[in-house]
Amino acid sequence: KAGVTQTPRYLIKTRGQQVTLSCSPISGHRSVSWYQQTPGQGLQFLFEYFSETQRNKGNFPGRFSGRQFSNSRSEMNVSTLELGDSALYLCASSRQGVVEEKLFFGSGTQLSVL
Amino acid sequence: AQSVAQPEDQVNVAEGNPLTVKCTYSVSGNPYLFWYVQYPNRGLQFLLKYITGDNLVKGSYGFEAEFNKSQTSFHLKKPSALVSDSALYFCAVRDYYSSASKIIFGSGTRLSIRP
């Protein structure tokens, strides 16, 4: 069974640009969540989608948005990039999105903003 | 509001010695606690979780964790460390107040096992 797949693996953008990251969950998993990992801030929750609906959102500005498609694949978009958006972006999936389930993580997309 | 703290940025242990990685939490309701490990250039991997029941939870790769409600702690332990255990470890908590409870991660502890 294939794991969580994130594309692209690396991205280099300049300030002011926008970027879209993609996440394909494990087959049969309906919940997808996104996280930002930086050396200074650690691992921070961005948002979670379940059955194409955003179910929860972290404390990030509106420049960060996402969506989930009917096949559970998810995309995350960051508009008007800032230098501070440079980070490893991880997505995770779980079967039913209930609180006691473990999360399966992808390898992440490393975003560098110049 | 829920929170989780990992007081040590780094833990250094000699191979063969026992190891402990500390975690304390704060939630308003019942805590659901997790440990994840991250190897270089990889995503996180699930190690173990506490939902309810026995306070000592056993997980992958010989790791275990003890839930202590009075001290609001969930320390990760292993009786005999291996060099291959060197990685970044994250403690996480969810507060079950709804089906949409979000997960909060600690800042991570880098575990270094010397041969």
| Euclidean distance between termini CA atoms of chain B | 41 Å
Rg over alpha carbons of chain B: 14 Å
- The outline of chain A comes out as globular
Count of helical regions of chain A: 0
Strand content of chain A: over 45%
Give a quick account of the main beta sheet of chain B: strands, pairing sense, barrel closure.
6 strands, mixed
How many strands in all of chain A? 11
Query: What is the subunit organization of this protein?
Result: heterodimer
Number of helices of chain B: 0
Q: Helix/strand/pairing class of chain A, anyone?
A: mainly beta
Largest interface: A-B, 24 and 24 residues
Q: What structural class should be given to the helix and strand makeup of chain B?
A: mainly beta
N-to-C series of helices and strands of chain B: EEEEEEEEEEEE
Listing every helix as H and every strand as E from the N terminus to the C terminus, the arrangement of chain A reads EEEEEEEEEEE
Any idea what the shape of chain B is? globular
Rg calc of chain A? 13 Å
Number of strand segments of chain B: 12
Unreliable residue stretches of chain A: none
List unreliable stretches of 5+ residues of chain B: none
3D structure, described in words:
The complex is a heterodimer of chains A (114) and B (115). Chain A has 114 residues and is mainly β. Helices cover 0% and strands 53% of the residues of chain A. In chain A, strands 2, 4, 5, 6, 9, 10 and 11 form a seven-stranded mixed sheet that branches. A four-stranded antiparallel sheet of chain A has the order 1-3-8-7, with no helix packed on it. Chain B is mainly beta. Chain B contains no helices and twelve strands. In chain B, strands 2, 5, 6, 10, 11 and 12 form a six-stranded mixed sheet that branches. A four-stranded antiparallel sheet of chain B has the order 3-9-8-7, with no helix packed on it. In chain B, strands 1-4 form a two-stranded antiparallel ribbon. In chain B, a hairpin with a 7-residue loop joins strand 10 and strand 11. The N and C termini of chain B lie far apart (41 Å). At the A-B interface, strand 5 and strand 10 of A face strand 5, strand 6 and strand 11 of B.
